[in-house]
Amino acid sequence: MNKQEAESLLTQWIENENLQLHCRMVADAMEACARKLGKDEETVHRWWLAGLLHDLDWEKEPDAHPNHALEHVFPKTDLPMEVTEAIRAHAPERTGKEPDTEIERYLFACDEISGFMHAVSLMRPDGFSGMKAKSVTKKLKDKRFAANVSREDIHKGVQLIEADLNDHILFLAGVFENRA
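-> structure tokens emitted (180 positions)
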């Protein structure tokens, strides 16, 4: 599946612009992480696909997410199994699959934190520009701020990729700043 086909699938399934933005942010994060790890272009593309399509069925089938896409949408595509398994592992409480492989661990580590950082960026006059880890970690402590974002998953994610939370935040802030 090329980028144009993936984007077309995304917009067929997701109308909400904020959810589309989230998926694109996670795709950018995954692509940047793959490049940072020195992956080849084919692998970078697969990581980007996993990020872009991870929440494909969230809007139309929230109660069946991500299983609906895994069972009814992705089998009709040429998505590599590595990508579909990463999508399965990004929601272990719904699928029973824990993130084990590198792509699975990174998707888990990029998902919740991307959404949270976007919420923080909306509160800042310069968005992601100049965002410091401290401003994000301070908001993480406020349980009322972006209350639907799992702090537990954010912390689990950085443990899965053996990263420091502040370093992960700063890396992603740079990725997202370049996106704007």
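The chain has ten helices and no strands.
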